[in-house]
Amino acid sequence: MDDIPKDQLTGALRRGAVKKHVAAIHVSGKLTLLQRKLSNVLLLNAYDTITSQVSHRIDARTLCLMIGYNSNDIETLKTALRGLAETTAEWDMLDEQGRQEWGISALLSYARLKGGVCEYAYSPALAEKLYDPKVFALINLNIQRRFTSGHALALYENCYRFIRTGSTGWWDLDLFRRLLGVGDSAYYETYKHLNAKIIKPAVAEVNKTSNILVTPEVRKMGRSVSHIRFTLKENPQLSILDLDDGTGLRKSAAYGRLRDLAVGDRLARQWLKEHGEAAVSAKLDYLGGRDDVRNPAAYLRRALAEGPPEQAEVSPRNLSPRAARLGAIRDAAAGRSPTQRDADRRLFSARLDTAQRADFERHGWMSPLNREAIEAFWEELVPGVFDELA
User: Fold this and answer.
1) Fold for domain 1-139?
2) What is the mean pLDDT of residues 134-139?
3) In this record, what's one Pfam family (predicted)?
4) Contact 348, 366 (CB under 8 A)
5) Which of 5, 85, 230, 289 has CB 3.0 to 4.6 Å from 137, enough for a Cys bridge?
6) DSSP letters of 261-283?
7) What pLDDT, in 10s, does the model give residues 12-65?
């Protein structure tokens, strides 16, 4: 959790030429891979209201699923939250007026579990820094899930915020050990051990797993390594489609449904990019409730370009029962937060066999093979979701 600019929400911002380009927030102590993933999920969940709300809430089951462990293992969640509350974040930077600012804060000011909900808060000073797009780089959770090493994820987080400058700048070796969570280990005071056990494996995983490529460079004082930096660039081997918010355009449910209607790959991606998955899904849902459309692709082209005039007058009562229920599921899913939506899909997918899961991955909540299971799932998840259709 060492970085979090609003980078992927509003674009990268830069400081003036005479100021530090990127401010640094360093996390003390050793965070496990689970704790690092947990801190990123909590931050993403709170980000939009982090400076306006005192506390934030997330369903504990959703939180567990997003991090990738058993949703019934509350003791592990408690241990991870305790670790965040006991770990400090320290910053030393220039403010907008060029004045030096130093500060320290616990990663979480408090956390509690009650009624299946995790409530937590950040200190006001840390919340301000976490929200500042010039300080942190928001970590894409789809990339985060790929990491299997806490050291590799820590290296990625500390490097990623420098992608615009192409280099991290020189880090004192003691600071670098702290950033990777091995500052209190006498074994890693020897650069040979640090390089063999930490740096090389972490660099290999970052380059294989993430959307950036990093290369370490060292500076010596006499015969001993005193500083290290990483040059970085975007990883051309990873398709941008796999790194967007979610599972990628080609893996979205709407893309699969468009392809089933014989819409070409390029056109399907163009529609999704221009109109968004929600709008395309809405048109597909409406189309699914009609039996008089002879050319679905042509109809969708017109509907997306100008919107079907008759759709504004359509209510659930005018749709077929199946289309109405599909619409209710779509609306319920759209009303969930991004972290909840991802967890809902993972939770439902875990219940399916191989064939069912393949159909669900292709069609999402509109999966014809899993129709009854999907309706039962949403009735359980959101009681009364179909009541207005009765």
Assistant:
1) Arc Repressor Mutant, subunit A (1.10.10)
2) 63
3) Rep3_C
4) no
5) 5
6) TT--HHHHHHHHHHH-HHHHHHH
7) 222 222 222 334 566 655 778 888 888 888 888 888 788 889 999 988 887 877
End-to-end CA distance of the chain: 47
What local confidence, expressed as pLDDT, does residue 242 receive?
42
What is the residue extent of each domain of the chain? 1-139, 146-238, 245-389
d(CA 369, CA 119): 37
pLDDT tens digit sequence for 62-75: 787 777 666 567 88
H/E segment holding residue 218: strand 212-221
The four Cα atoms 348, 353, 358, 359 give a dihedral, to 10 degrees, of -70
Integer Cα distance of 315 and 324 in angstroms: 9
Q: How far apart are CA 335 and CA 162, in angstroms?
A: 34
Q: Which pairs count as long-range contacts for 305-313, CB under 8 Å and 24+ apart, including other chains?
A: 308/283, 311/286
In the numeric block, which tokens belong to residue 390? 């009765």
Could you tell me which residues come within 8 angstroms of residue 34 by beta carbon, excluding any fewer than 6 positions away? 67, 69, 76, 80
In sequence order, the 6+-apart residues with CB closer than 8 A to the CB of 310 are none
The DSSP H or E segment spanning 219 is strand 212-221
Among 253, 157, 165, which residue's Cα sits nearest to residue 202?
157
Task: Output the six-digit token pair for 193.
Answer: 């051990």
Q: How many CB atoms lie within 10 A of CB 215?
A: 12
CB atoms within 10 A of CB 47: 18
CATH 3.40.50.720 fits 146-238, yes or no: no
Q: How far from 202 is each of 110, 183, 214, 261, 263, CA to CA, in Å?
A: 31, 16, 10, 44, 42
For residues 145, 147, 152, 154, the Cα torsion angle rounded to the nearest 10 degrees is 20
Q: Is 185 helix (H, G, I), strand (E, B) or coil?
A: coil
Cβ neighbours around 76 below 10 Å, total: 15
Which amino acid is present at 155?
L
DSSP state of 186: S
Cross-sheet strand order for the sheet of 25-27: 25-27, 88-94, 100-106
CATH topology agreement for domains 1-139 and 146-238: yes
Contact 218, 225 (CB under 8 A): yes
Q: What is the pTM of this model?
A: 0.55
